Every structure is written in structure tokens, then in C-alpha cells.
């Protein structure tokens, strides 16, 4: 477990480095806030579309050839994309490189399958929480460093991120062990790697059912926030790389505290299902506060009250993973990643599309928060589907499938 946590941490630090500065780099090729928003939409859409088709393919390849080899492909793809982005001279170059990066990057799905390989079903919620804490730690270190480096030069975080991705490739090649034994591998099937087919397979997993809608709606809400956060705060509050980096530091800090320390006590106290319901309710309130906030400190302050909201995605993921067996964890996690990738295709259209409609309104106009109001509505749908599923499917019917 320690090996994969280190790999994920380095990976997320490298990705986190570019988050506070990528929208601002995109803005150097535009002349107005509306153009800036639409350009960011094109860049984010390109990444999501490529990742939607790439994730189930790489997840299936990891079931055939092992997790380690596919992760090495992801590390090398990230490194190349970071360096090319740093040297981009036109907007079309950013769009093309994000297409490439999206197609190559399925590290999150493969890392989840890696953890499932080495963990009994009963312990997966705890282990996924540790993995979530590693993601969160990456978002503590990465965005802060990216914000500080970006305040010096917008291109500098991309060069540092590329270097870290290369170091992670070396770590993966020389140190990271393989988690999937040969007897649990299976042939690669192009038909099964179809992202739309993989979506239907997740829905058919025993004990999951309509939770696929929860994954979709909740995932879309989270991705809209990720897509709009930096640009929204820059437009409304005048935040630069430093302020956005520090706000993302708060997000990462809470992810580490909740998923690394509070998740297991919360599950023991509330149970996995109840934690999902309370977490989705908390997310609704958080999004409404973000949409109505008139001061920048409000955007950060509400983060520290959203404890259950940080725990709910991991609890939900453990329910899905436990419904799969040892031979198709890669495919299952790849399918879940495909859902998130499909939502990543839709998130810039929904979130940045809404921002483009209200971009020219006065900074104090409550309608500027339209993307966050939409996210609150999505989390309300997630809450409804979760409540309905948990009342229709008894706990014993959703017990983990045997490997």
C-alpha cells in the first residue's frame, strides 16, 4: 500500500501544480472575460472527451498486462503534456495537448484497481480513504507550490510538473511492484473497452443499480466546481495564482483530515449508506453558499464545514468496488472513471457555459453563482437516487461479491 500511495502522491502534486495557473495561461490567448471562459471550455472539453474514451481502454489493458505498466504509460504521457503546455504559443496547441493528456491519463482508475487488488473487500473503504488522503495531500502541496511559482512566471509550474512526472516514471519503473498476479489477468476485449458499454456494466453490478446515477450526478457537480473554481474566483474576486492556490490548499487539507483520519470513525458511527446521504446533503448546502458568497473568505470558510461531503465519495466508491470480483476490478474502476470522464466532457459545457452567459454581469449580481446553483441541484438529484436505492435494496443484498 505504501508503494502506491507514494506514486499517487507524486502524481497528484504534479497535476496540482498546474491547476491554479492553467486557466490563466489560457487567458493570455484571449481578450475578454467571455472569450476567456469559452477558451477554457474548449481546453477542458478536449481533455474530458479524450479521457472518456481512454479510461476504459487503459483500465482493460491494466487487467490484461498489469497495473504497473499502464501507470508508467500515464506518467510518461503526463510529463510530455506538461512540457508541451509550457511551450505552447497558441490556443490550439493547448487544446491538442489536452486531448493527448486526456487520452493517456487513467492513473486514478488504475490506482483504485491497484488498491482493490491488494485489499480484502471489508477493508476497501479504509484503503480508498488512504488513497483519497494521498490525493488530498497532493492537492495540499501542488496548488500552493503552483500558485507561488505561477506568481513568478505562468510557465514555470508546467516545467516543474513535467519534471515531477518524469521522476514518478522512474519511481514506477524501478520501485513500484506489480499488484495483479498472472492468474487474475484476463484477455483484453475491445468491445468491453467501449466506454458506453462499460457504463452499462457498472449499472448491472450486484448491489449497485441506480447508484450509477448518483456517481454521475455527484461526479458532474464536483467536476463543474473543479472546472470553474479558478476562473470564477479570478472573475468575481480578482484572485491570482497565489489566492487560488491557497484556496485549493484548504480543499486538500480537508481531504487529508477527513479521508485520512475521520473516514473510519464516521463509517463506524453512521454506516456507509447514511454517510453517503448526509454527505450529499452537506454538499447541497456548500454549493448554495458558494453561489451566494459576496466575499472571497466565504469561499474558503465553508470548505471546513463540509466534513461529510468529503467522506461521501469514498464511501460510495467502496460500495461499487465491493460489487466487483478480483478479475474485473480494473474494468470496474475504469468504468467508474469512464462515468467521471463522461461527466468531465459535460462539465465544461454546463459549468463554463453557464459562466459565459453571466460573465458580463456586475460582480455583486447573485446570478454569477449560476454554476454552483446548478451543482446544488445535481447533488439534490444524487441524494434522491441514493435514498431511493438504499430503501429498495436491503443491506445484505449489497454485500461484497466474493473474489
How would you describe this protein?
The protein is mainly alpha-helical. It is 77% helix and 0% strand. The chain is built from 16 helices and no strands. It has helices spanning 2-18, 22-27, 33-65, 67-86, 91-104, 107-117, 124-152, 156-174, 195-204, 211-237, 241-270, 272-292, 296-301, 307-321, 329-358, 370-392. Helix 6 (107-117) runs antiparallel to helix 15. Mean pLDDT is 83; it is low at 396-403.
Largest sheet: none
Number of strands: 0
Percent range of helical residues? over 70%
Low-confidence runs (pLDDT<50, min 5 residues)?
Answer: 396-403
Order of helices and strands: HHHHHHHHHHHHHHHH
Number of helices: 16
What separation lies between the terminal Cα atoms? 19 Å
Residue fraction in strands: under 5%
Give average pLDDT, whole number.
83
| Radius of gyration, CA atoms, in whole angstroms | 20 Å
- Shape field: globular
- Briefly note the structural class of the backbone: mainly alpha
Secondary-structure topology with pairs:
Elements (H helix, E strand, L loop, with lengths): L1 H17 L3 H6 L5 H33 L1 H20 L4 H14 L2 H11 L6 H29 L3 H19 L20 H10 L6 H27 L3 H30 L1 H21 L3 H6 L5 H15 L7 H30 L11 H23 L11
Helix pairs in contact: 1-7, 1-8, 3-4, 3-5, 3-15, 4-5, 4-6, 4-8, 6-7, 6-15, 7-11, 7-14, 9-15, 10-15, 10-16, 11-12, 11-14, 12-14, 12-16, 15-16
Tag the structure with descriptive keywords.
403 residues; 16 helices
Amino acid at each position: 500500500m505504501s508503494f502506491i500511495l507514494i506514486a499517487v502522491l507524486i502524481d497528484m502534486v504534479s497535476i496540482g501544480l498546474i491547476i491554479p495557473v492553467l486557466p490563466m495561461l489560457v487567458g493570455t490567448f484571449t481578450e475578454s472575460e467571455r472569450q476567456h471562459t469559452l477558451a477554457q471550455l474548449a481546453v477542458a472539453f478536449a481533455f474530458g472527451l479524450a479521457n472518456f474514451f481512454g479510461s476504459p481502454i487503459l483500465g482493460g489493458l491494466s487487467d490484461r498486462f498489469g497495473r504497473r505498466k499502464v501507470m508508467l504509460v500515464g506518467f510518461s504521457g503526463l510529463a510530455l503534456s506538461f512540457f508541451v503546455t509550457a511551450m505552447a504559443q497558441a490556443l490550439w496547441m493547448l487544446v491538442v495537448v489536452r486531448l493527448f493528456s486526456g487520452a493517456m491519463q487513467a492513473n486514478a482508475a488504475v490506482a483504485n484497481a491497484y488498491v482493490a487488488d491488494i485489499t480484502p473487500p471489508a477493508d476497501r473503504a479504509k484503503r480508498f480513504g488512504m488513497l483519497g488522503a494521498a490525493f488530498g495531500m497532493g492537492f495540499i502541496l501542488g496548488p500552493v507550490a503552483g500558485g507561488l511559482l505561477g506568481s513568478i512566471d505562468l510557465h514555470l509550474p508546467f516545467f516543474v510538473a513535467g519534471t515531477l512526472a518524469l521522476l514518478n516514471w522512474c519511481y514506477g519503473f524501478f520501485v513500484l511492484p506489480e499488484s495483479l498476479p498472472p492468474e487474475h489477468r484476463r484477455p483484453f476485449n475491445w468491445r468491453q473497452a467501449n466506454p458506453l458499454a462499460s457504463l452499462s456494466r457498472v449499472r448491472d453490478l450486484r448491489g449497485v443499480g441506480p447508484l450509477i446515477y448518483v456517481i454521475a450526478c455527484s461526479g458532474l457537480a464536483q467536476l463543474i466546481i473543479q472546472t470553474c473554481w479558478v476562473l470564477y474566483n479570478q472573475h468575481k474576486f480578482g484572485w491570482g495564482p497565489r489566492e487560488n492556490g491557497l484556496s485549493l490548499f484548504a480543499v486538500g487539507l480537508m481531504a487529508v483530515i477527513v479521508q485520512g483520519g475521520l473516514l473510519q470513525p464516521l463509517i463506524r458511527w453512521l454506516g456507509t449508506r447514511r454517510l453517503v446521504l448526509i454527505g450529499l446533503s452537506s454538499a447541497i448546502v456548500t454549493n448554495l453558499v458558494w453561489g451566494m458568497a459576496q466575499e472571497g473568505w466565504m469561499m474558503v470558510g465553508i470548505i471546513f464545514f463540509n466534513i461529510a461531503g468529503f467522506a461521501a465519495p469514498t464511501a460510495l466508491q467502496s460500495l461499487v468496488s465491493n460489487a466487483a470480483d478480483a478479475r474485473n476490478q480494473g474494468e470496474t474502476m475504469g468504468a467508474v472513471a469512464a462515468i467521471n470522464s463522461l461527466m468531465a466532457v459535460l462539465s465544461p459545457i454546463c459549468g463554463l457555459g453557464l459562466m459565459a452567459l453571466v460573465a458580463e454581469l456586475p460582480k455583486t449580481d447573485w446570478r454569477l453563482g449560476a454554476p454552483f446553483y446548478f451543482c446544488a441541484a445535481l447533488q439534490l438529484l444524487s441524494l434522491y437516487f441514493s435514498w431511493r436505492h438504499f430503501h429498495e435494496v436491503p443491506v445484505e443484498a449489497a454485500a461484497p461479491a466474493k473474489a
